[in-house]
Specification:
- It is a single chain.
- By secondary structure, the chain is of the alpha/beta class.
- It has one domain.
- Helix content is about 35%, strand content about 15%.
- It is built from 7 helices and 8 strands.
- Helix 6 links the parallel strand 3 and strand 4.
- The longest helix has 16 residues.
- The two termini are about 15 Å apart.
- About 40% of the residues are buried.
- The model has no long low-confidence stretch (mean pLDDT about 95).
Amino acid sequence: MKNRLSKAQAAYEDAVENVSDLHVKISDGNTKLGAIPSVSLIPVMDCGNCAICAKSCYDLRNDFIYKEVIKTRAINSAIYHEDPERYFKEIDGYLNYRYPRAFRFHIGGDIQDKWYLDKMCEIARKHKDTKFLAFTKMFDVCNEYLDEGNVIPENMHILFSGWLGLKMDNRHGFPEAHPIFESGTSAPEGTLLCTGNCTECLKEDRLCWSIGKGQAIGFLAH
């Protein structure tokens, strides 16, 4: 794991040196998401609340075995940290061009701060026909955003991402997602079980794409 993060750090530093010549990389999908586009940052390095889950990070274990994945995540991270306005402008440009039915934020990485969350919401309001999905452990950022009177658009589905032993302040009743381990789970009673097929759930408008306040999704840890 440390070796993969070291490679990501090196790729990030290379990207920073050439950031003006680079562009945000949007994935057209993967085996789990199907044909649902997504934008990602670097796992752990761009996750502000991952101390408890970093060693078991699925993205780091399963996606960071590919050099191209490390490179594209590093490029996105460099663009965001060096020129955050351009980062979101290029995501907006992709959405204007492709008009996807759905879009996922952060297979790797997480919401960075309230400004970042506000830009996500701004994009969702502009692209009303696209459903957006994001899982986050940045509970404080989301809570404070709503505490200040901000509103998250209906087409922006944000799920609080739980973990065994992780304290979650969910005072605004965000939908939740919890991994289910052989040793136990943080999922509450009545949790719905993930089917493992994001595209099918999108077609049928269920689970993560339609889950409401106070509800939870559980997925088998892998």
